[in-house]
Amino acid sequence: MSITRHNWTKEEILDLYNKPLMELLYDAATIHREHHDPNTVQVSTLLSIKTGGCPEDCGYCPQAARYHTNVEGNDLMSVHQVKAQALRAKASGSSRVCMGAAWRNVKDGPEFDEVLEMVRTINKLDMEVCCTLGMITENQAHRLAEAGLYAYNHNLDSSEEYYKEVISTRGYQDRLDTIDNVRKTNVTVCSGGIIGMGEKSEDRAGMLVALSTLNPQPESVPINALVAVDGTPLEDQEPVSIWEMIRMVATTRIVMPETQVRLSAGRTEMSREGQAMCFFAGANSIFAGDKLLTTPNPDVNEDMEMFKLLGLNPQKPFIKKMQPETIEAADSQYEALGEKPKWTRPEHRIDRNEEAKLKAKEVLK
Ligand code: SF4
After folding, report:
1. How many CB atoms lie within 10 A of CB 163?
2. Could you tell me if 168 and 207 are in contact, meaning their C-beta atoms sit under 8 angstroms apart?
3. Peptide bond into 216 cis (omega under 30)
4. Amino acid 133: pLDDT
5. In the chain, where are the structural domains located?
6. Which of 49, 57, 61, 226 to mutate to test the pocket of ligand 1 (most atoms within 8 A of CB)?
7. Nearest C-alpha to atom 4 of ligand 1 is from which residue?
8. pLDDT at residue 362, rounded to an integer
């Protein structure tokens, strides 16, 4: 039985990533079988509860207000709308709803109170609830935990070195600090990244060092292939090949044996054969639903057909960890503190982000 190590080096991870493919696949599939049922795949539905208008400058993201993309912004959804979508997701086989809001960080106030109510509502439907709301403080993490949050997503995106080439409005340490705040509660951590942003293999390995040396390692690691959206700074990036995706999934599986490795953005570009190889290499989670926040994703019926073809079964909720209790707002031990944490704003210059911003201004003239 392989053990979970927290001292992986970049060189060791690169050696794995560059192994002859059949050896890499064999090693990853062996470890996968030691720690997981290879025929079970967890299915999450991603719901954009507040779309667009984000003040950040993430080079891959069509929701950043400064770029001109065809994303239509929406205010925060209502609890009622979220409940209806969660019920639909449950009926189609999802065990988890992940709610995403295009915020830099969470601010205490009526909108966050609404999100807490959404968490309570979905947990009462006996579904796992995940949120991805940007940076959060320890107190906000406790409030989410009390509401019944199962997981908090906060991606590291890439290596610390390459992160500076993609985002200038916050620092890598802010990401790690938010993960640390989540770890002070019983909420599980979901954190992964994106390949295909122009990074080198060394950066992919660097990201896996950052994730695998966390103790405990994240319970979920989404691996996204960049979906290059017109108007974003990364609009001209060539798609990553399926072989890079398979190598990334297999390497992630080996260095984080217990985690759920999630095939995330970019699945519309993958054949069923390619996805099957990713499952063989250790992926055991997908995002379902025809949209991933704002980018396309395979239809849920197509996914269920693929599951049937491959003999895969959707995982039931709360298999890895017990369902958290929901504490009602009136009984909460953690009140809103109205904190104003000093999250970093490095604001270094990223030429392609600046160019995309200028282009957007031209279009809107
Ligand atoms: S990835 Fe998140 S933080 Fe970055 S611009 Fe998009 S919505 Fe904002």
Report:
1. 25
2. no
3. yes
4. 98
5. 10-318+340-364
6. 61
7. 58
8. 85
Are 188 and 151 contacting, i.e. CB atoms less than 8 angstroms apart? yes
CATH architecture, range 10-318+340-364 = Alpha-Beta Barrel (3.20)
Alpha-carbon distance of 57 to 347, in angstroms, equals: 10
Strands (E) in 102-171, as ranges, are: 128-132, 151-153
pTM for this predicted structure = 0.96
The response to whether residue 61 sits with its C-beta less than 6 Å from ligand 1 reads: yes
CB of 53 closer than 8 Å to CB of 163:
no
16-65 pLDDT tens trace: 999 999 999 999 999 999 999 999 999 999 999 999 999 999 999 999 99
Query: Once rounded to an integer, what is the mean pLDDT over residues 225-234?
Result: 95
Query: Residue 92 in contact with residue 59, Cβ under 8 Å?
Result: no
Q: Indicate whether 256 pLDDT > 90.
A: yes
Active site residues per annotation: 54, 58, 61, 98, 130, 190, 262
Give the residue among 90, 100, 162, 101 at the shortest CA–CA distance from 128: 90
Amino acid at 198: G
User: In a mutational test of the pocket of ligand 1, which residue from 51, 58, 135, 157 has the highest number of ligand atoms less than 8 Å from its CB?
Assistant: 58
d(CA 42, CA 85): 18
36 CA distance to ligand 1 middle (Å): 32
CA of 60 from ligand 1 middle (Å) equals 9
Which of 271, 268, 265 lies closest to 234, judged by CA? 265
Residue 21 C-alpha to ligand 1 middle, in angstroms?
Answer: 34
Is a pLDDT exceeding 90 seen at residue 302?
no
Ligand 1 centroid from CA 106, angstroms: 13
Residue of the nearest CA to atom 2 in ligand 1?
A: 102
Mean pLDDT of 85-97: 93
Mean pLDDT of 277-288: 95
Residue 63, ligand 1, Cβ within 6 A = yes
- Contact (CB, 8 A) for 42 and 222: no
Ligand 1 pocket, residue 139 CB under 6 Å: no
| Digit-coded pLDDT (tens) for 115-146 | 999 999 999 999 999 999 999 999 999 999 99
